[in-house]
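Sequence design from tokenized structure. All designs in this work follow the same two-part layout: the structure record, then the generated sequence. An example of the structure record is given first.
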């Protein structure tokens, strides 16, 4: 897995503070940014957290480049709908150089790992075979309809992988660009940094939190699983590791 913070709102905490100032002070468009030194910015951000006024936080956004994650993770992260995603398409990008994510727990067990690796190899082999068969079929159709050889081959290969991709597993590697506003990110961290979240998206969310804390430490000071700053909301489903979680995220 590789995660990079490739863009974000310039001066994100000051932007949030300006939005808060517009709500609570006699400011206008000409003066809203005046006097917002580091101390006042931190105070405004802290105040918003204390009173639960979250809408000003939405004015700061963060964009991540993510690769080396599975299609299983893609299905989970896109459930966070207040975000924007651009994902590498399996319709347009061939999986000829097939890569996949090996779950750590499978890797620990030799017998399970062998089965998994054999399955990945078989999926790749079947993908290539289906792509070739369909490509030959479509090539004949396109040339019969008058396309020259070069055009027919290009169109046939593209159309073939549209259906061949259905044989690929959830483990198949994918890449994406994802943009969240800070409020949506805080919600994302609340759910996905939790120890009960699935391991891959938990690892991703933790890395994303580390990155945004570097550029907006006050804004994400209390971000992470709920148990770090309060009571675990999972009830009987709690992982029971609140002490370890507090240590991990408070020292991040």
């Amino acid at each position: 897995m590789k995660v990079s913070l490739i863009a974000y709102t310039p001066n994100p905490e000051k932007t949030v503070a300006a939005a808060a100032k517009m709500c609570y002070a006699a400011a206008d468009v000409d003066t809203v940014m005046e006097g917002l030194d580091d101390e006042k910015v931190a105070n405004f951000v802290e105040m918003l957290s204390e009173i639960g006024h979250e809408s000003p936080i939405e004015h700061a956004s963060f964009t991540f480049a993510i690769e080396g994650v599975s299609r299983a993770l893609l299905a989970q992260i896109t459930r966070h709908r207040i975000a924007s995603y651009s994902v590498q398409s399996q319709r347009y990008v061939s999986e000829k150089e097939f890569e996949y994510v090996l779950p750590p727990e499978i890797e620990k067990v030799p017998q399970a790992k062998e089965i998994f690796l054999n399955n990945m190899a078989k999926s790749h082999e079947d993908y290539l075979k289906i792509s070739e068969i369909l490509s030959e079929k479509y090539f004949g159709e396109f040339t019969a309809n008058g396309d020259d050889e070069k055009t027919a081959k290009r169109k046939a290969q593209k159309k073939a992988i549209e259906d061949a991709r259905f044989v690929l597993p959830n483990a198949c590697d994918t890449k994406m660009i994802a943009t969240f506003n800070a409020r949506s990110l805080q919600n994302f961290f609340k759910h996905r940094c939790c120890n009960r979240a699935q391991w891959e998206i938990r690892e991703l969310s933790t890395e994303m939190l580390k990155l945004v804390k570097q550029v907006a430490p006050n804004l994400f000071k209390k971000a992470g699983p709920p148990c770090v700053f309060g009571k675990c909301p999972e009830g009987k489903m709690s992982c029971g590791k609140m002490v370890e979680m507090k240590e991990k995220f408070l020292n991040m």
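Residues 50 and 149 are 67 Å apart (CA to CA). We note this feature because it recurs in several other targets discussed in the main text.
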